[in-house]
Amino acid sequence: MSMQLTFALVNGLTVGMSIFLVAAGLTLVFGILRILNFAHGGFFMIGAYLTFSFLQVLGDGLAQFLLASLAAGVVVAGIGIVTDRIVLRRLKDLDEEYMLIGTFGLLMVCVGAVKLIWGLDYHSVSPPSEVSGILRFGNLIVSKYSLFIVAMGLVVFFALEFAIHRLWIGKIVQSLANDGWMTGLLGLNVPLLFTGVVIVAFALAGLAGGLLLPNQSLSPELGHAYTLNAFIAVIIGGLGNIRGALFASLILGITESMSSFIIPGMPGLAIYVVMIVLLFARPNGLFHRGVS
Amino acid sequence: MLEVDNIDAFYGDSHILQGLSLSVGDGERVAVLGRNGAGKSTLLKSIMNADPRVCGRIAFDGKDLGSTPNFVRTRMGLCLVPEDRRIFSHLTVRENLEMARYALPCGVAPHDVDEVIGRFPILVPLADRFGDQLSGGQQQLVAVARALMARPKLMLLDEPTEGLAPIIVEELVQDVVSACENEGIGLLLCEQNIWFARQCTQQVTVIDSGSIVFSGDWAGFDAHPEIKNKYLAM
User: Which domains does chain B have, with CATH numbers?
Assistant: First the structure.
């Protein structure tokens, strides 16, 4: 019994970190540009397909896999620049419903582009040989790839935390999030900073697509699969709050995993119960400290 | 230095400024008086291209500003200290001042942060406090200090005395006047506090419902007491 619980916990941690990898970029755009980017999952999917194509050239191996994922991040970041120019910049000062319609349209463009370029067939990719297989801790069996995902999630989290809380550019980005108007009046090129944030967020989406590619079926549906949970994590964690997104993702992952173990007859229910309870308890996010 | 020529400014459908013209010469200090809602803040925000939709010509240093974005106007030497101060709560006083170095025009050397803080004795012990740990008066001093860090040619001050204790208002007069005189900074000051405005400026303009109703020096203002009674009395 306890072994099964531990297994569910480890599994939940992996699911949570996967959600966080998608949620990180989403919460950046949400918190700083105040744009609810429905298309985020679409760009995540494009990252996954790009990694798939790069891997066919590069072959097996952890280094090749990381390189392909990073390259996907770079390409998606480039797509982000174009998207910012053509779509996001125009949506920024409009009402939310226009943003929802606009970014939903963008998601459909992503899905259409994927179907045109890579076709409708399902593909699957195995983890690179270095992180495939299992590790045994006593009776507990953990897949190496799970540990790899957890490690990658932590790397992304600490990199963002360091940039936002320790570097001067992080203070500028926080100024932009708290009061973009005044930031511009102090001589900072706000549109350029917004583009920078979009680049980072899209790069994270592309990278996440690559890192999470193995062990799941690659299809034009992939964009939807993670988006919903990532949105829930962003909302529970507080808009624009990286730390909140991490903890909310882990709570969601563990909830989902535990509930499929404890109440297997009602899959997916527990996540919504947790979301509702947390939104009642902390409506402004897990770590809201009251911005003046 | 600044020429505002027959501008109209709008918020949505509201027509706030109506055919307003005004100029500020090099190093000149001009007060704009008017009741709440007369259009004082809108005038300053229009000059900065920070929110209102503006028709008409605004020129600075002989250059037509057109649709120049606000951050470029700041770097040209215009610096707005908004009415609500807008001190960043996640930054310390020192960091708030450092943030203004992006406002410096090309090739202008920055001031030393501690030297600028030193000009405001109240701020010296507060340099490492965060923005949300300051009183309203302290925030106002930080906002003025931050503008001085930007080394502007023209400082736009929006109702700096609002909510300040009289003793701080007196200190603010000293700080503003000495900074302007020592560095040759021009001043466009929107105020309701006539005493403060008189201490800080040579010229005065009165606006009402988005239009100018008086323009001249303080002696001229005093020679027409009806202006004060009609447009400024509460």
Answer: 2-232 (3.40.50.300)
